[in-house]
Every structure is written in C-alpha cells, then in structure tokens.
Amino acid sequence: MIKTILFDVDGVMLSEERYFDGSALTVWELLHSPRYLALPGDAFTPSPDEETIRRVRRTVFADDEVLNFIKSRGINSNWDMVFLAFSYQLIRICEQLKHAHAEQVKDLLRGQINQAKLQELGQLLSPDHPVALDYAAFTADFAKGNAQKAELLTYLNQIAKERCGVETDIFSRNSQLWKLCQETFQEWYLGDERVAASIGRETAQPGKKGFLTDEIPIVEPAKLREVLLKLKEKGITLGIGTGRPTIETHVPLAELNLLDLFDPDRVVTASHVLEAEAAYPDQAPLAKPHPYCYLRGLLGLKTDIREALFHQLPIPHGEEVLIVGDSLADLLAARAIGCRFAATLTGLSGEAARSKFEQERADYILRDVSEILDLFS
C-alpha cells in the first residue's frame, strides 16, 4: 500500500520547454556576449524575441539531439546541461587556438575559468581567422565513452586532453566555470527582479525578463488539483523532489493553486541539494540521479542533512513509497532508494520514452500525471 508519493516537477507537472530555452540562451550568452567570449556572427541581446529563442535552441542543442543524449546518460539538471554544452564548445575553441596561442590555452585549461578568463580568451580571437562552433559534434564526441551521470562532467577533461593535448582536471561540478554557468542560467530563468534572491547578487547582464512567469502546465491545473486532493483523501502524503531551486518551485506551483497540497516538510529542491553539497563537499554531486533529493523528501526537511545523506539504502517497506518522474535520472534514484517508480511520458522525448522505461522495468508508465489515480482504482 502506497503511503507517500514524491513528484518531480519538470516534465511531470510543468513543461520543461522554458528550462531548455533558458539553457540554450545561457550557452549563447557565454559564447556571444561582450561580457564573456564575444564571438562574432550572432548579435547577443538579453531580451530576444520568440523567433530568436527558437533559433538559438535549435542551434545550440542541434534540434534537441544534444538534450536527448544528455538526458539518456542520466543528467537531469539544467545547470549541468549548460555546463556540458558550453564547456564542450570552449574546448573546441581552444583546439582551434592551440597552435597560435599554445601557452594561453594551456594556462586556461589548467586553471579555474571565470568571467575574466573567458574575456581574456575572447581577446585572442582574430577577425581574420574566426573559430568555428560545432554543436552537433557534442553527441559524437561523448558517445565515444561510456560516461554516465556526473561522470559526463569530468569526461570533459578527457575531451580536452584529446583535442587540445592538455592534461587537466578543472572540468567538474565544483569548478568556478560550473558556478558561472549556474548563475547565468538563473539570470535567464528568474529575470532581473528575482535573481538576487537566488544567487545573492543582481544580474550581471541586465535586461532579462525571466521565464518564471511564463510556465506551461502539462495537465490543466484545476484537473491536477482534483487528482492530488483525491490522493490526499486516501491518506497519502504528497511531496516533491525537484531539480528546480526553491523559488522556481514555490512561485509557479503557488500561482497554479497546487503548492498547498504538498507537505511543506517534504518539498525538496535543488536549493536543499546545494546546501547539502556545501555541508559535505566530498559527497558531491548530490543532484539526481543521486537519491538524496527524494530521500530527504521522504524523511522530511526537519531531518538532519547527515542522516538523510548516509541513510541506509534500500529502505525497508519500499513498496509504500512511489516516485513519479519523467526521466531516467528519476528512475535511477527510485531504484537506489528501493521504492516504486511511475514514469510519465510528458518529458522531452514524449511517447518515444515508453520503450526506454519498459526496458528499464519502470513499475508504472503513465501518459501524464493525472493517470496516477488509476493505480488506486
């Protein structure tokens, strides 16, 4: 008998589309904004129109081929997606500069990379010999290896060695470059008015409206509220385990009149994951598919971080807990915990994800989250 249900948000309750748009725009900014590499050929603006947003996403993620590959390898964090996509292009740029600027390239790839370092690299570019970007090559390069989940981030070090001949270990989730990618993405998603509450500073590139007020619900909110109310009437505790930061979880769910249906002690977000990583850096990364997010949701936020982090797995009575997600990362987290998993076919791949979830033996496969009531009929 299921007593607790923990829901992912993106791809389950809210569409991931704007997150992917924000990810693509972040890569675009880091490549073309005068604040960063300032590559020519694509004029940057912090307030692109919808046509530009669609074009940038098609380009940066190679018609979503790159996104599908990253998610198929177990990455569920948009911050990690941005870091992977941008870092790969950065390595390709260094490869094209390594003969003319060998020492500068070596120094860049062996030290921490921040905004100032990107500007320095951009100044090495010559209008007479522009560098070429190759977004589609991402998939082929990463497909050469078997890296999964967080290993994808450190696999960038191998690609840097192969393409630039530089031994390095700077590409990781603990790097300054990862933090730069994360904060720049937050600027895009939250916009000028809200970003300071998330990252502790004002936007570095003013003019971003943000996507937070432009969320797209997957199931009509009134219908989803009815579904969740019926689950609560059955005595089921409802929680959340999401890769979104807290503000990006609370604001849209409150606006859709859904947040109050979840146990506030069991709404766990990326903000809580970052808090745990700061407290125990040797355990990072803790983002999905690591089970920490969902396990903390099961135990409750009042539970000490250490207790949740080192809780014995699999849990006893796992059949009493159900995780609802749209990705392989969610499934792997559920499997680590030892609980049941319901896959929704409303993520990036849609119905095409069914065969993958069947192959991975998901306990249930739902066309959308509203079908969850069928499990209790």
List keywords for this structure.
46% helix, globular, 6 strands, single chain, alpha/beta, 17 helices, 377 residues, Rossmann fold
Overview of this structure, please?
By secondary structure, the chain is α/β, with parallel strands linked by helices. The mean pLDDT is 95. Strand 2, helix 12 (246-255) and strand 3 (267-268) form a beta-alpha-beta unit. The protein has 2 domains: 4-15 and 216-376, 3-Layer(aba) Sandwich (Rossmann fold); 17-212, no CATH class. Helices cover 46% and strands 6% of the residues. The protein is globular, with a radius of gyration of 21 Å.
Secondary-structure element series = EHHHHHHHHHHHEHEHHHEHEHE
Number of strands: 6
Tell me the count of domains: 2
Helical stretch tally: 17
Percent helix among the residues?
A: 40-55%
Envelope shape: globular
The profile of the biggest β sheet is: 6 strands, parallel
Instruction: Classify the beta-strand content into a percent band.
Output: 5-15%
Low-confidence stretches are none
In short:
This protein is an alpha/beta fold.
Topology:
Elements: E1 4-7, H1 17-32, H2 50-60, H3 65-72, H4 78-97, H5 102-110, H6 115-122, H7 137-143, H8 151-164, H9 176-190, H10 195-199, H11 221-233, E2 237-241, H12 246-255, E3 267-268, H13 270-279, H14 292-299, H15 305-309, E4 321-325, H16 328-337, E5 340-344, H17 354-359, E6 364-366
Parallel strand pairs: 1-2, 1-4, 2-3, 4-5, 5-6
